[in-house]
Amino acid sequence: MAAATPAPTPSAPHAIARAATSPLARIAAAARCTLAALACLWVSLCVAIGPLYWEDRSIADWSGANTLYFALTLLVTAAFVVTLVRRGSGRRALPSNWHLPMEWRAWGRKVRAGRVMCELRIAAAAAGRLLTRATDRGWKILIILLVAWLWVPATLMSAFGADIRSQAREFSWAWNQWTGMRQPYIGFFSFVPMDIYPTAHYMWPSEPTYLTDQHNIVLTVIYGAAASVSRYLTDSNDAGFVVLSFLQWLFAAFCVASATNRFLNLPWLRPTYALDEPNYTRPERPRYERQVDFTRPERGTTAALTIAKIPLMPYPNRAAGGFARLVIMLFFLICPLVLFSTISLTKSPLFAFSFVWWFGVWYELHMTWRRGIKSARNPLGHLIALRRRSLVAFTVSSCVMLISAKYAWYIIAAQIVLALVADRRRWRTYLVALVLPVVIIHGGIAALISTGSVIGGDPIESRGVQLQMIARVAKLNPDGIPADAKAKLEPIFNLDQMAEAYFRQDADPVKSSGIQSKKVSYKWRTVTPDDMKDFNAAWWQITKANPVIALDALLAECFGYFNPTDLPYVSMDYYVTSDYVQKTSTWLKLVNHDWRESVAKFARAWGTIPVLGWVTHGNFYVTLMLLIGAAEVVLRRWRTLLTHFPLLLLMGVMATAPANNFERHMLPVAFVFGFVCLTFWRESRAAQGVVGALVGAQTDLRTAATNQAGND
Fold first, then answer.
1. What is the pTM of this model?
2. What is the DSSP annotation of 29-82?
3. DSSP assignment of 598-630, as one string?
């Protein structure tokens, strides 16, 4: 009897298949699909309730039309996520048994074989090569941006709203104090800069101080100092604001160019393939350095390495093609969101551009994480250390984020925890670029506040959603407020004024923010810390007694961020044509006044076009980003999600912001949207290669088993 043939060793595909069918794997897969379904349901709900809140109605007025909007949106979003998941896992977008009609396929073959199509392909390939050469270096991208954006500071000059005027006023009062001028401070009849926001008097130190952290103290000092110098030299703030806008414009161009270069060109790959010395005796090796002058060898060599000369790498380590470069560059060159943000002197654009810079370094960290032996699949080998210039960029961008937005430290703190868990071997990088800026900047500001040098922001600023709920109930059902809740709120708010000030889009009137027509609903002059202890209890009592009205207040204040059909409450063109620019400025209002109005009018007209105008609004990119994140969860791209997690936190900031569909809050997500799409594409192409390898391994296994059976 012949000896028994040993069973073949299970291949990797079989092991993966068994692991995927385990009970734990099925539970995890169900959880991931549930998260993706929740994202689709949330977007569908936000789209469906839009018509209700546009007419100041309630979710209780839900009708068949809203059900239709919900169902159609759910169908579209679910199809979008499913398509991304299928493509991301290396499969066809449509199931294998779905085919186009025979006539369509025959027509497609005829068109593809046509002469016109061939010529178009040749032209597209040539244009792609030209665009790649024009954008294969960061400095080239920077020049393109500076030239294309030059008209913005040259003609619009500056854009700002009330915030920078308040910051200039704060600094001016502080300067007067430092120079010995006596000014009013705490008093019922006094009205100082801290009363505008307002900031509760119990937070003011006993020693007079006029600087606050309401708009970030570092920016307040910088902007206020520039305005003071401008007033000293020109008798107005306008020149200082123009200079600040120009500097921000330069910073924006640098940040976008830096991040775009990282995502398009993968510059960390070049040193891997550059030769230390040219070797002309080995013609099979690529020559990435050449002689400066062949007749004078003593002049040495110069680097001739560009992304176009690097051999095509396996995905995801492959530079972007012409189409991706075209789309990303067009977005930054013509989208009003970007153009107006470059010169808008409010904290959100500055944070957004520094976030773009920061986000690009995160991508480099993600792409250089892989360890192991250098091979075709892992060309970076043991490349783990971050390039020195990238470490500097990582650190500086973190600092700019921290000084421009107070919620930046929450985002950075969360990333510190995730990074140290997932990539602890590079802990020194995160210590220098993330931990130290948080400790120095955030800790320094906290120390200034604790010593009474600076007044902190009022905690009421973070309670916008709760305030809207209370105010909506006070307006629509004042008799439904429990007596105990009224007693608890009486030292904090005037409920009658809250009801009168309520506006579904914005919580600022309820907080008594602003200087024009101030309604004293928030009793900031007399409220005490002990009074605030009862606020949450009173809010909860009111919410329980009026759940539908409270839900309306919540949804009305955040649905626009996830509804592409909702026009922005405040768009970025507001800062270009605000009254502070066009009416109350000194001489700026006289320069190109009509041109500013024309540019803003064009942007608004473009934005109102159905579908085509969506690309000019931030909520379009926020919605798609949420769905892409859902697909990444289903695909288990955990390391990629680590770098995208700040985008989810920013969406949380939007949902809890004091205003609905406030476009400046969406800038960071909109600016990096193209980069996220490019990352998804690269990783999906890499997955296709893995699937192909697995299919090949299965085929080899079946062939070996067949041959073995034949031998037996």
1. 0.89
2. HHHHHHHHHHHHHHHHHHHHHHHHHHTT--GGG--HHHHHHHHHHHHHHHHHHH
3. HHHHHHHHHHTSTTGGGGGSHHHHHHHHHHHHH
Q: What one-character DSSP code corresponds to residue 312?
A: P
Question: What is the model's pLDDT at position 8?
Answer: 42
Q: Is 154 exposed, middle or buried (0-12, 13-18, 19+ CB in 10 A)?
A: exposed
Kindly state the helix (H) or strand (E) to which residue 648 belongs, with its residue range.
helix 638-655
pLDDT at 433 over 80: yes
Q: What is the pLDDT at residue 283?
A: 46
534 vs 703: CA distance, rounded Å: 74
DSSP secondary structure string for all residues of 497-522: HHHHH-BTTBSTTTTT-SSTT----B
Q: What would the two tokens of residue 225 be?
A: 């100092």
Cα dihedral sign, 598-348-465-510? negative
To 5 degrees, how large is the angle CA 344–CA 349–CA 353? Answer: 125
Q: State the DSSP code for 303.
A: E
Closest alpha carbon to 275 in 249, 295, 299, 302: 302
> Strands, DSSP E only, in 89-184?
none
* Region for 320 from its dihedrals, namely left if φ exceeds 0, alpha if ψ lies in -120 to 50, beta otherwise: beta
Q: What is the C-alpha separation between 125 and 130, in angstroms, rounded?
A: 9
Residue of 24, 19, 41 whose CA lies nearest to 630: 41
CB atoms < 10 A from the CB of 608, how many? 12
d(CA 633, CA 168): 45
Neighbours of 712 (CB within 10 A): 8
Residue with the larger pLDDT of the pair 193 and 259: 259
Query: Omega into 283 within 30° of 0, i.e. cis?
Result: no
Q: DSSP string of 333-349?
A: HH-HHHHHHTTB-SHHH
Enumerate long-range contacts of 378-381, CB under 8 Å, 24 or more apart. 379/269, 379/272, 379/313, 379/314, 379/317, 380/268, 380/269, 380/272, 380/317
- Kindly report the backbone phi and psi dihedral angles of residue 554, in degrees, each rounded to the nearest multiple of 5, phi listed first: -65, -50
pLDDT tens profile 158-196: 999 999 999 999 999 999 999 988 888 987 667 888 988
Q: Three-class SS of residue 488?
A: helix
Residue 556 to residue 680: CA distance in whole angstroms: 32
C-alpha distance from residue 304 to each of 33, 73, 282, 602 (Å): 48, 51, 17, 44
Looking at residue 605, what is its pLDDT? 96
- Per the listing, tokens 């783990």 go with 384
User: Per the structure block, which two tokens stand in for 486?
Assistant: 């009224």
Domain boundaries, the chain: 105-134, 270-315
Distances (CA, A) of 627 to 64, 649, 670: 26, 15, 14
Inter-axis angle of helices 347-367 and 238-265, nearest 10: 20
Q: Residue 591: what residue type? A: V
Residue 577 has pLDDT above 80, yes or no: yes
DSSP 215-250: T-HHHHHHHHHHHHHHHHHHSSSHHHHHHHHHHHHH
Query: CA-to-CA distance for 291 and 248, rounded, in angstroms?
Result: 41
Please give the structure tokens belonging to residue 389: 């210039």
Query: Which residue type occupies 610?
Result: P
Burial (CB < 10 A; 0-12, 13-18, 19+), residue 669, is buried
Residue 321 sits at the vertex; the CA angle it makes with 319 and 325, to the nearest 5 degrees, is 100
